[in-house]
Amino acid sequence: xxxxxxxxxxxxxxxxxxxxxxxxxxxxxxxxxxxxxxxxxxxxxxxxxxxxxxxxxxxxxxxxxxxxxxxxxxxxxxxxxxxxxxxxxxxxxxxxxxxxxxxxxxxxxxxxxxxxxxxxxxxxxxxxxxxxxxxxxxxxxxxxxxxxxxxxxxxxxxxxxxxxxxxxxxxxxxxxxxxxxxxxxxxxxxxxxxxxxxxxxxxxxxxxxxxxxxxxxxxxxxxxxxxxxxxxxxxxxxxxxxxxxxxxxxxxxxxxxxxxxxxxxxxxxxxxxxxxxxxxxxxxxxxxxxxxxxxxxxxxxxxxxxxxxxxxxxxxxxxxxxxxxxxxxxxxxxxxxxxxxxxxxxxxxxxxxxxxxxxxxxxxxxxxxxxxxxxxxxxxxxxxxxxxxxxxxxxx
Length: 396
Known about the structure:
8-stranded antiparallel β-sheet, 3 domains, 396 residues, mainly beta, 4-stranded antiparallel β-sheet, Immunoglobulin-like, Jelly Rolls, single chain, 3 helices
């Protein structure tokens, strides 16, 4: 009998335990009374959106405010704001027309108040404003595109151009949240070509296209198979950490793996480091690209060059001095986010993948030999590491 009673007691306790567990899954509040409505709405129209300020109902059960409007397809677009604040921001409008927004108070039981209807009339949406600001100019092998994005909205700038059959194809898409930026689209012959630019946002709104007819400036990428290492007095080593100079013209922009970079070391001397190589041809250079090692450890970090120079000559002095050399460019590797070293955003990664793109002045002489000279890196000394260098110009 005692055993039977213990079994009954066990099952009773078990049922009580599971009942408690189930109770804990229920809403904290279980009433069905809706809170009072939001009152005294005031509207501040914003680019592509609006800020709605209101008075909250005196309901201790209040959890959040909600705003709802219908997009062009009739789909509800919803936004929420904590009861700790008295305003809510709605965004994602495709135009500057008047739109109706309904705002609600919602309590802890999920009860929603009566709607308060508000009329908003957004200012020009960011994707449309960016299109109006776009400037397109001829560039070496293509075009350069610049624009303003004052609200730092998430935008995609798409460049289209006809292919060999005349069909419009996307040549490049530039993604950004910067307040202003520029980029280049290259790889085209020096002949008249139609280019179209279109802007879209995270809400999948697409602008009209801005069309232009331009002739890219002639250039060609120099043949990297002709590049050769040159060792002159005073030149830095490039084989630290398993590196070698040939890695920077092997056509591979890689992360931190074996045989991916040229590396001058880590020991700081306070004296600018430099190394020399032969392009294999005499050329009037138009531009060059330097890519850091392709990973978060090296983008705007480590001994990646921050401030550096490019020098050129037709006949290097065998004593290793800079006599007879011409400074072709001074470059500062700038981090788009401006965040401290070690902190990185997706915009920083995009910039790291693109690398430093430098356009040379048009009045510079022809050169054959190149020197890279590092004045400062992201660790505060003068060493440098990089994974790929590319030069363009006219070697005819």
